Amino acid sequence: MPKFFLSCDSVPADFSPTTISITGNDAFHLSRVLRIKNGEVLQVSDQNRRLFTGSVVSVSDSEVVLSVLSITEDNAEPDVKVTVYQALVKGDKFDTVIQKSVECGACEIVPVICERCIVKIDDTSRQKKVARWQKIADEAAKQCGRGILPNVCEPITFRQAIDRMSYDGFSFVCYEGKNVVPIKELLRSSDSKSISFLIGPEGGLSESEYELASKVTKLCGLGPRILRTETASTVVLSAIMYHTDNL
User: CB–CB of 106/146 below 8 Å?
Assistant: First the structure.
């Protein structure tokens, strides 16, 4: 059954509507691409752990109206909030990181500009790239049945990322070098429901970035093999979801 999303504040948590509307691009997609008909049943998440099941009562390119059949708890979301700080990578690898991170349960993906990043983003292309990345995240969320649409943020520097991570309940930087704690041991040391981690670029962290990270947060090891940067986030998210009983 197809699943769609309302904006977070569109339906108050204490209100149980008899009808709901899907608008914008989703309405156009339902009308013109899926050619939805009256009587067909859809699922719509309010992104606040409520799932509306409704029967289509009217269709247009700008709005699809559903008669609400039931309201249940949306159990698709993990009970831990995980933010992925991912160094920019070349080609379509960052697209893959976003897609797989959303599928594995990330709530937010933050692109990070590191010293050894090959990819450069200027002000003219920044907005277009972020909009494209957000579309990839939205499509992945719909495909895998998430309960929210995870957010893709504007790119920030490595130092900004480390500063922002310090406000989360538990954070760490993945590193393939010395003085690291194995991820299994690291996750056992915390029961926080707010976790963030950073994955470096293809060339690894610079010495100055390593020094900064080692002073501010924990360094996490992912085993004896060197993982590609686009693989590491999936491995870490899987470990987190397993550790927190969300698999």
Answer: no
Residue 138 confidence (pLDDT): 94
pLDDT value for 2: 66
Residues β-bridged to residue 200: none
Cβ burial, residue 84 (10 Å; 0-12/13-18/19+): buried
∠ CA 203-101-182, nearest 5°, is 60
Over residues 11-36, the mean pLDDT reads 91
Q: Is 80 exceeded by the pLDDT of residue 1?
A: no
Q: In the sheet that 3-5 helps form, which strands lie side by side, from edge to edge?
A: 3-5, 41-45, 50-59, 63-73, 19-23
All structural domains of the chain, each given as residue ranges with its CATH number in brackets, are 3-73 (2.40.240.20), 81-243 (3.40.1280.10)
pTM for this structure?
Answer: 0.89
Name which of 189, 185, 157, 155 is nearest 170 in CA terms. Answer: 189
| Residue closest to 202 by CA, chosen among 133, 94, 121, 118 | 118
What type of residue sits at position 175?
Y
Taking the C-alpha atoms of residue 24 and residue 2, their distance in angstroms, rounded to an integer, is 16
Phi, psi of 203 (to 5 degrees): -90, 5
What is the rounded CA–CA span in Å between residue 132 and residue 154?
A: 12
The total of other beta-carbon atoms located within 10 Å of residue 53's CB is 15
Residue 245 DSSP one-character state: T
